[in-house]
Design brief:
By secondary structure, this protein is mostly beta strands. It has 7 helices and 36 strands. Strand 21 and strand 22 form a beta hairpin. It starts with a helix and ends with a strand.
């Protein structure tokens, strides 16, 4: 019997062992009885259309992680929470590094550079590589209301970067987090957790909250099977205030500070290419955000958002620091019952400074960039609550590739209250980054068959273009009182994808005879992806809920004529063809909860990682409302497995293993 078969049977046994005892047992009020599946489908989401709409009526492949999902997962990092989303690949590389992607194109260089990540509607991408540094996205998880994840392009509203999906982390208002809360935990592998939150009133029409959290994540194992790779240590704190200024006006202001560090398990003497740099990855910074909303009438609402961020990083191979300022305006206007218009504009400026090493530097070492954008979207509903057509586009101008147009068209048909069908055609781009324009990397020397050393370098390309996708999607959604099903299918056609174009080797005599090879970033790859995503939510009874999903992905990448690239097509082998999961949320009694998850990820042939499965469980006891103790276990199947490998030379290949954490939540 294979290891996967044993894991599947073990997980099934854990799920079934409680079924007989609860199927006909006495029922009483419990968390899972609080909401029917119809209620869950009526959750209001905003990421698909930049306006509030019911989840069941969203014309896109969208999944929502609720606060209840977060609490019952037993997880402590946001990337790990995203494992619950159908079609998302989440892979941990190091203690503080995750590679997260939607519908393919995961990599270890630009984390999530085709997946736009937002926090309360503002982008958190890094201008250094257009990706997301997940160690900077720590949060007091109890402050999160929900995480909306849209699979598929969202560039018509959100702009470049929203190529294969959008993740929007939406926090709760200060008024929803009144009183005090303390959370603490301790676990294996050096895990520890301590956090507090306090909320109160600010005048007659306002509320505030303050919070702080320290987390030390699980240590990872190196190739030798020893726990020599440190977990991510983060310290986060912040305040938020929400005020109702008048019957028409509301204001939200929040500020946060963070600091994070992770030990990669190597020492400075092992890094010959960065002899003077710290053998650790550290990041720190802060942000300030203000949102003003004015409701002019029942037909018109305007929002102005201002955001300032200043993070700085000290990596093994380089350092960077930047300040970005975003100003975002939008207006939602109902022209008539059948016509609704939303439009707006945005401006972003960023000032970036880098510190190079012998391995990586940037020429020039600093630069300033500006992004201007505007969007418009019109929704026509000729048959109320049954048929809608949505057309829109975003136009933006960036400092790298100039003017970009990103249109989108969707149709939504709801034949009755239980069935929804939708289809979409979109164009999106991933704009160039500082890395692709200005990087200069020197790789460790190689030995040629002629006995001469090879000294390779990789250079940025000032003419690097935007990567483009033309996406075609369709989906079906069925909702009932006990069972909901969602199916989506897509085909994406990509052009101008990033490649590495080497020059002809040349013989150089200084400082010693060697062959010199220079590689430059290019846009000479194209291809297409096809995929299916299926997820179900079955409420077995008032105590037991089963959630399952399956995703299938096929990637076909080809080089353009004239390309000399030898490695970029391997991206097709860095994403799994098959993924599935089964999650069980079970209320044993009014106070006891038992939750189990099985996650399966197919093999990644390009990085030689075999298929793996993980089993997570959580046992919780609610002492009284707001007070809970829980024991969580992750990777309970045993053994240690790699999820992805880092491209940085000398980085050890990290393995994830079994871990446990005991935590206590005490709130008013």
């Amino acid at each position: 019997m294979s290891s996967f078969q044993r894991l599947f049977r073990l997980s099934a046994a854990l799920l079934v062992c409680f079924a007989d005892g609860i199927a006909g047992g006495k029922q009483s009020p419990r968390d899972l009885a609080d909401r029917s599946l119809e209620d869950l489908m009526n959750i209001e989401v905003t990421t698909v259309s930049k306006r509030k709409q019911r989840l069941g009526q969203a014309p896109a492949a969208i999944y929502v992680i609720t606060q209840e999902d977060i609490r019952r997962s037993g997880m402590t990092h946001i990337p790990d929470l995203l494992r619950m989303v159908p079609g998302l690949q989440v892979a941990q590389l190091q203690g503080g590094q995750w590679a997260v992607s939607s519908r393919g194109f995961n990599d270890d260089i630009s984390y999530s550079n085709k997946l736009l990540v937002l926090v309360d509607g503002r982008s958190v991408y890094s201008p250094i590589d257009s990706g997301v540094f997940w160690d900077e996205q720590d949060a007091f998880l109890e402050n999160i209301e929900r995480i909306e994840v849209v699979r598929g392009p969202g560039a018509a509203l959100w702009g470049s970067g929203a190529v294969n999906g959008v993740i929007n982390i939406i926090t709760r208002t200060a008024g929803e987090t009144q009183g005090s809360m303390v959370k603490t935990g301790i676990g294996t592998g050096s895990q520890s957790l301590a956090g507090f939150r306090y909320g109160g009133t600010a005048g007659a029409n306002g509320h505030y909250r303050a919070f702080g959290r320290y987390l030390h994540g699980q240590s990872l194992w190196n190739q030798a099977g020893r726990p020599g790779i440190g977990g991510l240590a983060t310290l986060t704190g912040g305040v938020r205030g929400d005020w109702t200024l008048s019957e028409r006006d509301s204001l939200m202001v929040k500020g946060e500070l963070f600091r994070a560090a992770a030990d990669p398990g190597i020492t400075a003497r092992e890094l010959s290419f960065v002899p003077n740099h710290k053998p650790s990855a550290e990041t720190s910074g802060g942000s300030l955000q203000a949102n003003w909303t004015r409701r002019q009438s029942d037909r018109s609402e305007t929002e102005l958002r201002v955001f300032i961020a200043h993070p700085q990083r000290s990596e093994l191979i380089y350092g960077d620091s930047y300040t970005s300022t975003d100003v975002d305006f939008q207006n939602d206007f109902t022209i008539s019952p059948a016509h609704e218009l939303i439009w707006g504009g945005a401006f972003r400026t960023s000032s970036l400074t880098t510190t190079g090493t012998d391995y990586v530097s940037f020429l020039p070492a600093s630069r300033k960039d500006a992004l201007f954008s505007g969007f418009v979207q019109h929704q026509w509903t000729p048959i109320e609550d049954r048929l809608s057509f949505i057309f829109g586009s975003k136009i933006e101008h960036n400092s790298f590739s100039g003017l970009e147009l990103e249109p989108d068209a969707r149709i939504l048909w709801t034949p009755n209250n239980r069935h929804t069908l939708w289809a979409a055609a979109s164009r999106a781009v991933r704009a160039p980054s500082f890395l692709e324009n200005n990087a200069l990397a020197h790789s460790p020397s190689l030995m040629s068959p002629l006995g001469l050393p090879i000294l390779p370098e990789t250079r940025g390309n000032p003419s690097f273009q935007s990567e483009e996708v033309a996406a075609f999607e369709t989906g079906y959604r069925m909702q009932g009182s006990r069972l909901s099903v969602e199916l989506s299918a897509y085909q994406n056609i990509y052009t101008h994808l990033r490649t590495y174009e080497p020059s002809t080797p040349s013989l150089r005599l200084a400082p010693y005879p060697h062959l010199f090879v220079s590689t430059q970033f290019g846009n000479q790859m194209h291809g297409r992806t096809n995929g299916l995503e299926l997820n179900t939510n079955w409420k077995v009874n008032s105590r037991w809920k089963l959630i399952s999903s399956y995703s299938w992905l096929r990637m076909n990448m080809r080089l353009d004529a004239g390309s000399r690239d030898t490695q970029s097509t391997r991206v097709a082998g860095e994403s799994p063809r098959h993924q599935f999961q089964v999650r069980s949320n079970l209320d044993l009694t009014r106070r006891w909860q038992f939750d189990t998850s099985l996650f399966y990820t197919g093999n990644l042939p390009a990085v030689r990682i075999p298929a793996y499965a993980r089993v997570d469980s959580r046992l919780g006891y609610r002492i009284r409302p707001g007070v809970e103790i829980s024991l969580s276990g992750q990777n309970l199947q045993g053994g240690k497995h790699a999820e992805f490998y880092s491209v940085v030379p000398a980085y050890p290949h990290a393995r994830v293993g079994r871990s446990f954490m005991l935590s206590l939540t005490w709130g008013e």
